């Protein structure tokens, strides 16, 4: 099933516009400076709520990468599609400095060669997808903290882009979305609990100005 769905998404359901859109979506080097600017804008524009949201997302993405993704990649040692199969389409933005300028150039499309029978130690890193887990964290956090539920489309779009570009198997992105959802909901639940029960004691002025982080909150503010 994994191979058939990969073949459909990666080689059959393709279009030059999709090449550009999904390659751009997957390119972290393209988005990093934009995300930094958005984070600064949120902090200065929305004050406490903005900075708190930025911290929540930054901690969640960091935990995804170093607590969940990297240890599991090392444990599973699963090869990416373009490492395991020949003729897998590899779609990426063109090389450019700064990376933002890559959108002005044609998308890079290549095909994988024959699998290496003796892969190096750093090549087998397909499961889970940190891209998808981080997209899930951002999509859920924006939806629950700002009531902007359209961002729930971000995780499936990122999952699609990772399969489309030949970087991950369909099963990788499916389980990464589930793991990212479970982790993020638990993480937001814990953060809300700490905000209501600990921050409310040490910084009551903060919780007075911002009674809830996640809307709706599972923990009503304590009456004082």
Account of the 3D structure:
With 224 residues, this protein is mainly α. It has a single domain, classed as Vanadium-containing Chloroperoxidase, domain 1. Helices cover 63% and strands 4% of the residues. The chain is built from eight helices and two strands; from the N terminus they run H-H-H-H-E-E-H-H-H-H. It has a two-stranded antiparallel ribbon with strand order 1-2. Helix 3 (28-76) packs across helix 5 (130-146), helix 5 packs antiparallel against helix 6 (154-164) and helix 6 (154-164) packs antiparallel against helix 7 (170-202). It is elongated, with a radius of gyration of 20 Å. The model is unreliable at 217-224 (pLDDT under 50).
Write the layout of secondary structure elements.
Blueprint: H1 2-12, H2 16-26, H3 28-76, H4 81-84, E1 89-92, E2 108-111, H5 130-146, H6 154-164, H7 170-202, H8 204-209
Helix pairs in contact: 2-6, 3-5, 5-6, 5-7, 6-7
The coarse silhouette is: elongated
Q: In this structure, how is the largest beta sheet organized?
A: 2 strands, antiparallel
* Low-pLDDT sequence parts: 217-224
Q: Count the helices. How many?
A: 8
* Widest sheet: strand ordering: 1-2
**Strand tally, please?**
2
Notable characteristics:
224 residues; mainly alpha; Vanadium-containing Chloroperoxidase, domain 1; two-stranded antiparallel ribbon; 8 helices; 2 strands; elongated; disordered C terminus
Short recap of the structure:
The chain has 224 residues and is mostly helical. It is built from eight helices and two strands; from the N terminus they run H-H-H-H-E-E-H-H-H-H.
């Amino acid at each position: 099933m994994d191979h058939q769905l990969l073949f459909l998404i990666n080689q059959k359901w393709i279009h030059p516009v999709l090449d550009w859109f999904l390659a751009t979506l997957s390119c972290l080097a393209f988005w990093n400076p934009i995300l930094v600017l958005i984070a600064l804008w949120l902090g200065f524009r929305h004050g406490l709520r903005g900075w708190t949201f930025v911290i929540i997302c930054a901690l969640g993405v960091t935990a995804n990468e170093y607590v969940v993704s990297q240890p599991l990649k090392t444990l599973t040692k699963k090869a990416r599609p373009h490492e395991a199969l020949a003729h897998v389409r590899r779609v990426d933005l063109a090389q450019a400095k700064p990376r933002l300028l890559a959108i002005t150039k044609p998308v890079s499309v290549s095909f994988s060669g024959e699998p290496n029978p003796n892969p190096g130690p750093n090549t087998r890193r397909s499961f889970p997808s940190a891209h998808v887990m981080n997209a899930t964290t951002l999509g859920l956090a924006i939806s629950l903290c700002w009531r902007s539920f359209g961002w729930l489309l971000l995780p499936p779009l990122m999952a699609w882009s990772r399969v489309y570009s030949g970087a991950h198997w369909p099963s990788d992105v499916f389980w990464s979305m589930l793991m990212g959802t479970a982790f993020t909901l638990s993480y937001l639940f814990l953060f809300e609990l700490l905000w209501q029960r600990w921050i409310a004691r040490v910084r009551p002025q903060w919780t007075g100005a911002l009674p809830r982080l996640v809307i709706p909150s599972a923990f009503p503010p304590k009456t004082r």
